[in-house]
Design a protein that fits this description.
By secondary structure, this protein is mainly beta. About 0% of the residues lie in helices and about 50% in strands. It has no helices and 7 strands. A 4-stranded antiparallel beta sheet has the order 1-2-3-4, with no helix packed on it. A 3-stranded antiparallel beta sheet has the order 5-6-7, with no helix packed on it.
Length: about 80
Amino acid sequence: KGGEFTAATLSPRGALVYSASEAGELHVFDAATGRLEHTLRVTEGKREVVGIAHHPHRNLVATWSAEGALKLWRP
């Protein structure tokens, strides 16, 4: 359903893993258990997320696509 993962990053404290799928979804996993905590739609149409980063000091995640779309999220 969600396709393959295209990018991933850890939260600054290492508690969460954020991963983006080729289907344009952001998945949030508990790093200790591997349990899926949240799923968020982050792109429209055929824009594939190719990068993801977590701000080192704030609860802010950035995703970007090959087409140049950059979005900021508060998970």
